[in-house]
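Morning - flavin-adenine dinucleotide inputs below, output right after.
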Amino acid sequence: MSERTPVDSQVVIVGAGAAGDAAATALRKSGFEGRIALVGSDRHPAYQRPYLSKEFLRGEIAEERVFLHRPEGYRELNVEWLGGRRAVAADRRESSITLDDGSSLPFDTLVLATGGTPRWLPDVPRLSNVMALRTLDDSVSLRQVLATSRRLLVIGAGFIGAEVAASARAQGRDVLLVEAAPVPLARALGEEMGRVYARIHREHGVDLRTATTVRRWITRGERVEAVELDDGSREEVDAVLVAVGIEPDLSLARQLGLSTGAGGVVVDERLQAADGIYSAGDVATHFHPTFQRHLRVEHWQVARKQGEAVGRIIAGQGGPHEEIPWFWSDQYDVKLQYLGHAAGFDRAVRRGDLDGDRFSIFYLKDGLIEAVLAMNDARTIRLSRELIRRRRPVDAAGLASESADLRELARV
Ligand SMILES: Cc1cc2nc3c(=O)[nH]c(=O)nc-3n(C[C@H](O)[C@H](O)[C@H](O)COP(=O)(O)OP(=O)(O)OC[C@H]3O[C@@H](n4cnc5c(N)ncnc54)[C@H](O)[C@@H]3O)c2cc1C
């Protein structure tokens, strides 16, 4: 048992991405005076992944703009950033983790913010022009490949696949986007919105093939040069991006005997997995006090806010984490925002015209608003937070009417 007080004990954060960086920063800003070690297997200090499929990939912003902190920034915060180091083992009884160089780090409090690794499909060859996108180095490679490519094949029309398709079109590349589901983004947004996105991508010249997979890879040396789709068509391509989601990195959680669920480390309202162990970000399955169920969300702002909350909680300054999940995706000139979490909804109420360039959809379950999606409509997102938070039945006709004031609905 440690004799040190919570404010000057040793915190080890594994994973120096969005959530890990936020946890380290918030710990210090909340007055924690002990040692903070931030272990990250990436050789770079934390950076903003959302740029990697958008502005950075298109060459619109320089590399230095993507970083959350530079090494000197961590030094100023008195955070020991251990970059390019992987934690390979964790021992709960010993309260220590082992790094890939064999050294060990004792902890009083451990934060798992390990994010995830891109999924790879078993039949996809690992060749020089076939890549995934998660890290800054991945984005640099994809940028280089795109510069000399005429036609990019993207496997998977989830957010990352769809955003890269949009960025590649903006740079004048031909894009073949292959999706196994009947419409893009259906898993995240439902069929109706999927059809809207299918239309938008086709209007921007993407060759989108849905309900389709690659059945044969045609290679020459170290490169894929064509694919055969399951309708028998042969398509020439210069480069391939595999964008079929991530596998959360759970190996340390398993070694620590933590409970896992929905693909992540199960944590309570205060993001705690076990005594002295917390988790945040893509890898955390959080019991959300507003929704009264476990949620695992793979989005930027959720990871940042959870990380900040963990930092504050460890420093003795935080309560249950109640932030409503929020994310955005930019494709072409379309800005999507989504607030809440609609795992299962029984009613979708539209506000505005789905064929227009600005509208919102409210997702309801048993009369309560679970989530709202807004296309080029930031105001509706802003005004909906209270509607979601209050957990009271809402007048659906009012939601659908563009002239009704959402603030009034939240007061009823
Ligand atoms: C290209 C791209 C675009 C995106 N765009 C958007 C967007 O527009 N909007 C949005 O909301 N979200 C977006 N996201 C998602 C968002 O970036 C993630 O949800 C967020 O980065 C998750 O943060 P995290 O800290 O949980 O994980 P990460 O940021 O992945 O950080 C985890 C870190 O842990 C490290 N790690 C893992 N295991 C170990 C170990 N054993 N030892 C040491 N280090 C370890 C990894 O190297 C990694 O750096 C995008 C993601 C990508 C890849």
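Note: DSSP finds eleven helices and 28 strands in the chain.

O.
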